[in-house]
TrEMBL record:
Species in which this protein is naturally found: Nonomuraea zeae
Domain HTH marR-type: 24-65
Pfam families: MarR_2, ROK
Name of the molecule in the record: ROK family transcriptional regulator
Entries under SUPFAM superfamilies matching the protein: Actin-like ATPase domain, Winged helix' DNA-binding domain
Length: 403
């Protein structure tokens, strides 16, 4: 497991201890098993300070000692690893037809993975009530395991501003909704922070921390759900844009005479390469998975009509990806959601379009691959965002660098 590259560095200011606690915890996360001497040598903190910080982290049960090692020069050293056994991070994804929930420990190991059908109801209040009921069950499960929830991050398919307000989630019918505040009320002020973000953003965080291309400094994640959005990581950091609305690649127009998009325009990437284009319609939410499985079956049976449709969708998708490759030059573009089972038939056409349309040779080094994280990537990314906040200094026990 590799974490993001933008964690805290030792600093000399008022909250220096909180910052340096996070530095030590991050080092143990990335290099365990390691010794106190290893931490001091790599971070520049003196040995006495490291010993004090490690003692604090052990008291918080964030780090534990794991015996001695003699495979080193000098005296045997007591080695340190992450503990975190009393803690859990929770991520939840709200989508048109399902809610996914993932809980992880401090090391990112999954404690729970759930997926439940979800209709959204007729209003935001009904939707929040349904999601809140699922979250209460997850929190209850963690309580039975005697784990303190460090935080909750919720993924929503739509425009989410930097304050976490869902400005527009058209496929859910939500507008200007304070989902975080509403969930806090539904959970009766649970005592842990609740964050809300775009689903593609959180899925990109999951890929950077847990995916097959973990540690990539420049990657783009494309959702393959009813909508198509992009989560963008550049120079190791998630890029949300000025107001939080980056990544709406699904509404880049590819063909002004193309099919109508639900946004009211014609020929958007989402209309030409989204699930509606694959299935030639948007079926009832509960039927999408069944329809995708049937498309895979027909493609494997070499049904001519299905293969032609997937090639056409792959070419449209490749045109959209080439825009990203020319503009951002990512190391990798990762296809998620329903694109994953269809990837064997989509990727050849995507690659051909990249070769034809990207100005730099060899597509600027950009790879296009299918996600290995499955449909709960955005929920896993929610847990990753909570863990990122711990890496950045929001430690349990009251020492926090982030307000």
């Amino acid at each position: 497991m590799i974490t993001s590259t933008t964690g805290p560095q030792p600093a000399d200011f008022a909250d220096v201890r909180a910052t340096n606690l996070a530095v030590v915890l991050r080092f143990v996360r990335e290099h365990a098993p390691c010794s106190r001497a290893d931490i001091a040598a790599s971070t520049g903190l003196n040995k006495a300070t490291v010993s004090s910080l490690v003692a604090d982290l052990i008291d918080r049960r964030l780090v534990r000692e794991t015996g001695l090692t003699e495979n080193r020069v000098g005296r045997p050293a007591t080695m340190l690893v992450l503990d975190g056994s009393p803690y859990a991070a929770i991520g939840v994804e709200i989508n048109v037809d399902y809610v996914s929930a993932v809980a992880t420990d401090l090391a990112g190991q999954r404690l729970l993975t759930w997926r439940r059908s979800f209709s959204g109801g007729d209003s935001v209040n009904q939707g929040v009530a349904g999601v809140g009921a699922i979250i209460r069950r997850v929190v209850g499960r963690m309580a039975k395991e005697e784990r303190q929830v460090l935080g909750l991050a919720v993924a929503v398919p739509g425009l989410v501003d930097v304050q976490g307000t869902v400005r527009l989630a058209p496929n859910l019918g939500w507008r200007d909704a304070d989902i975080g505040g509403d969930l806090a009320k539904a959970l009766r002020d649970p005592g842990f922070p609740i964050q809300v973000d775009n689903d593609a953003n959180l899925a990109a965080l999951a890929e950077q921390r847990f995916g097959a291309h973990a540690g990539a400094s420049d990657l783009v994640y494309l959702t393959g759900e009813v909508g198509v959005g992009a989560g963008i990581i550049l120079d190791g950091r998630l890029r949300r844009g000025g107001l939080g609305y980056s990544g709406e690649i699904g509404h880049v127009q590819l063909d002004p005479d193309g099919p109508e998009c639900h946004c009211g325009r014609r020929g958007c990437l989402e209309a030409m390469a989204g699930i509606a284009a694959v299935l030639r319609k948007i079926p009832a939410p509960a039927e999408i998975q069944v329809e995708i499985e049937e498309s895979v079956r027909l493609a494997r049976a070499r049904d001519a009509g299905t293969l032609a449709t997937l090639e056409s969708v792959g070419r449209s998708l490749g045109r959209g990806v080439s825009v990203l490759a020319n503009l951002l030059n990512p190391e990798v573009v990762i296809l998620g959601g329903y694109y994953v089972p269809l990837a064997p038939w989509l990727l050849p056409a995507v690659q051909e379009e990249l070769s034809d349309r990207v100005v730099a040779s060899a597509a600027g080094g950009c790879q296009v691959v299918a996600s290995t994280l499955g449909h709960d990537a955005a929920a896993l990314g929610g847990a990753a965002r909570v863990l990122d906040s711990i890496d950045s200094g929001r430690l349990p026990g009251g020492l926090s660098r982030i307000p």
